[in-house]
Write a structure and sequence with these properties.
The structure is a single chain. With about 150 residues, the protein is of the alpha+beta class. About 25% of the residues lie in helices and about 30% in strands. The chain has five helices and six strands, in the order E-H-E-E-E-H-H-E-E-H-H. The protein has a six-stranded mixed sheet with strand order 2-5-4-3-1-6. It is globular. The two termini are about 25 Å apart.
Length: about 150
């Protein structure tokens, strides 16, 4: 098992769209160094949840002008075009992380269980022990819309 994992903060509204299958990309102005396909990403859902709620595998990475990345992702971007363009305003490069194999935690995990003191502003690289705690957590059961979409594409 590859225990390499990073922790990203994602706003609650966007996490809800990710878990429903409406949002299949996480957009970033810059990517964590060393991020690559199949890397695991733990999702810290911001206030009011303030917990690690899921993890996923990086299914791929897209980079390009904000306009070109939007054209490639807009049908399952999970964000309105206006907000997307505001986020990347003044930037030449937009990055999109392809969210694959999303696993929702049955019991959201507070950061202190991993020894992390505060929510990441950019990202936190987790050590093998921290990653194992997340990967071994009980996950929710049942199929969601994401699984159907991923199996079709």
């Amino acid at each position: 098992m590859n225990d390499e994992m990073i922790l990203l903060s994602i706003r609650e509204v966007y996490f809800r769209r990710i878990s429903s299958g409406e949002k299949l990309y996480e957009f970033r102005k810059r990517l964590p160094r060393g991020m690559k396909q199949d890397m695991k990403v733990a999702v810290y859902c911001t206030k009011p949840v303030s917990r690690i709620v899921a993890w996923f595998s990086v299914g791929g990475l897209l980079s390009g002008s904000p306009q070109s990345v939007w054209r490639r992702t807009k049908t399952v971007a999970g964000i309105e075009k206006k907000k997307y363009m505001e986020y990347f305003n003044g930037k030449n490069i937009a990055n999109a992380i392809v969210i694959s194999k999303l696993q929702l935690l049955q019991k959201p995990m507070p950061l202190h269980k991993l020894g992390v003191k505060s929510a990441p502003q950019f990202f936190v690289r987790l050590n093998a022990g921290q990653a194992k705690k997340i990967l071994r957590s009980k996950r929710t059961r049942g199929q969601n819309k994401r699984a159907k979409y991923e199996s079709e594409n």
